[in-house]
Amino acid sequence: MSLSLVLQEVTPIQEISPKDTMYIGDTEHYYGVGSSALSCVQLAMFAAKRDGFERVLDFPCGHGRVLRFLKAAFPNAQFTAVDLDQDAVDFCAKTFEAIPIYSSNDIQQIPIEGTFDLIWCGSLLTHFEAAKCLEFLGFFRNLLSPNGILIFTMHGRLSVNWLRSRQQIYGLEPEKVPEILQSYDATGFGYLDYPGVQGYGISISSPAWVISHLQQMDDIKLLSYTETGWDSHQDVIACTRIAE
């Protein structure tokens, strides 16, 4: 499989839900984010020596900003779309023929069955404390088929630098930003709740922190760690489950 084949361009379904909060009128950027995700998937395929997928999980799917590109690239795959936003799940089921699953705040109550040979998890772990991030990684690991690919994103060193300079504080309370940076500097991971919200906010993590926890999973092999790989912003981590 050649690199030129992996980085093929696709034409996604154009329909955008009027309830999609990720779309703020900038169509070029909206599609650019989806295209960037597909590039991340294709590069992981190259590293894993895969040329396609049968079952794909997009979690959280939103209103299909990424799913539309995955559907265009792998039209014969079966897609499952999961999100807390039921309208978003319904839109993905109708527009992209995905199997709809409504998520839950309790990971153990999320009704996903079977395994997947591609799991895309964009901008989910970026909103949780360390323990819940690791719980989700274990959850995805159990859903990953042998030789399947898991791709997830994190806020890495770029986000840390933005917080230090106050270029971007992600909706956090300005006076509390030193707390998340202090935790990051001490452990490689920092987290703060959004104002007025409990258990949901912003996390930042170093490559060393992420990789150290992946290393504790004996059947997981790291394929790549690409800093700012998604939309020139979030770090992209691709790994695969080793077949027994």
Helix and strand arrangement:
Blueprint: H1 3-6, H2 27-48, E1 55-58, H3 67-73, E2 78-83, H4 86-96, E3 99-102, E4 116-121, H5 130-143, E5 144-154, H6 157-165, H7 177-187, E6 189-193, E7 201-205, H8 207-214, E8 220-230, E9 234-241
Parallel strand pairs: 1-2, 1-4, 2-3, 4-5
Antiparallel strand pairs: 5-9, 6-7, 8-9
Keywords:
244 residues, alpha/beta, 7-stranded mixed β-sheet, two-stranded antiparallel ribbon, 8 helices, 35% helix, globular, disordered N terminus
Can you characterise this structure?
- With 244 residues, the protein is α/β, with parallel strands linked by helices.
- The protein is 35% helix and 25% strand.
- The protein has helices at 3-6, 27-48, 67-73, 86-96, 130-143, 157-165, 177-187, 207-214, and strands spanning 55-58, 78-83, 99-102, 116-121, 144-154, 189-193, 201-205, 220-230, 234-241.
- The strands form two sheets. A seven-stranded mixed beta sheet has the order 3-2-1-4-5-9-8, sandwiched between helices.
- Helix 2 packs across helix 3 (67-73).
- The radius of gyration is 17 Å and the shape is globular.
